[in-house]
Amino acid sequence: MSAPAKFAGLTKFDCASACNVHGCVIAGGRPQCMHPLKGGVPHHFKNDPAIQQLYYEAATALGIIPETTEGIGT
User: Fold this and answer.
1) Which tens digits make up the pLDDT trace of 32-57?
2) CA–CA gap between residue 48 and residue 4 (Å, rounded)
């Protein structure tokens, strides 16, 4: 399964090409890695629907079945 363009370069081992020390694509540009197999979503972002949607899309692109949040991934 290939990652959508916004997650280009994302693999189970590597962050997306657009990620850097200043921002994570999955984190909506925030300077915190939220790669599904590295850091994941920190507790204080668990209720952020935009972050949850990006995380769901990235995890799904990697073939990982993430926990669903109401309205996300349905």
Assistant:
1) 999 999 989 999 998 999 999 999 99
2) 21
3-class secondary-structure state, position 23: strand
Give CA–CA dist 53/33, Å, rounded. 15
Report the DSSP beta bridge partners of residue 20: 23
Contacts of 59 (CB under 8 A, 6+ apart): 36, 65, 66
Radius of gyration of the chain (CA): 11
Give the integer Cα–Cα distance in Å for 64 and 37. Answer: 9
**DSSP secondary-structure letter at 20?**
B
